[in-house]
C-alpha cells in the first residue's frame, strides 16, 4: 500500500483514489500510521482520496480519516473506542485440578506468566498496559483530529460518551458518526455507486 500510494502520488494520470474499507482487516498501528502518512502526501500533491465503508473499525477509521471525503453506510458506524487488552486467568482452575506450576521470573513488569499466578491482572501489569495503550491511543486521536480538523479532545469524547450519543440519536450509529464529524456523508451502497459513476463514469466492459 505504501509503495502504491507513492507511485500514485508521482503519476500525473492518477488524480483520485477510491478506497473501499468494507473488508479491511486492520493492521498494526505503526503500519497504519505509515499508510496514513502516504495518504497525506497524496493529498498534498493536489489529489483526492474517497473512502467508503459499511462500518469502520478502529484500524479502518484511522485510514479513512485521512481521506478527502469519508462515506458511511446508513446502517453502519465508526467503532472508535480506544485500545484494550483481555487475558484469561486460570490460577483457580489450576488449584482445583491440583496442578503444580513452577514459575521463574525476574523483575516487576514481567506479566507473561501471570495467568498461572493469579485470577486478575496485577497492578504493575495494568500500569504497563496503560502506558503502552495510552501512548498508542494518544497518537491515534491526535492524528485523526488533525486529519479531520476536529477540536482537541473530540475523539476521546466520542469514545467516552458514545452510549449517551447513541441514545440521543435513537440508536442510529451512522448518525452519531456524522454528527460528531467523523464522516462526511451517510449513504447506502447503491446511492454511493451511482454517485461514483456520475463523477467518474462507468466501464461497461468490466461491469463496474
What is the topological layout?
Layout: H1 2-10, E1 16-20, H2 29-44, E2 48-53, H3 58-64, E3 69-72, H4 91-96, H5 114-117, H6 123-148, H7 154-168, H8 173-179, E4 185-186, H9 189-200
Parallel strand pairs: 1-2, 2-3, 3-4
Helix pairs in contact: 1-2
Q: List SSEs in N-to-C order.
A: HEHEHEHHHHHEH
Main beta-sheet annotation:
4 strands, parallel
Q: In what order do the strands lie side by side in the largest sheet?
A: 1-2-3-4
Q: What quaternary form is this?
A: single chain
Strand content: 5-15%
Mean pLDDT over all positions: 92
Q: Compute the number of strand runs.
A: 4
Radius of gyration: 22 Å
User: Helicity, in percent?
Assistant: 40-55%
Q: What distance separates the N and C termini?
A: 22 Å
Bulk shape: elongated
Overall SS class: alpha/beta
Written account of the structure:
With 208 residues, the protein is of the alpha/beta class. Helix content is 49%, strand content 8%. It contains 9 helices and 4 strands, in the order αβαβαβαααααβα. The chain has a 4-stranded parallel sheet, with helices on one face.
In short:
By secondary structure, the chain is of the alpha/beta class. It has helices at residues 2-10, 29-44, 58-64, 91-96, 114-117, 123-148, 154-168, 173-179, 189-200, and strands spanning 16-20, 48-53, 69-72, 185-186.
Describe this protein with a few key phrases.
208 residues; alpha/beta; four-stranded parallel beta sheet; 4 strands; 8% strand
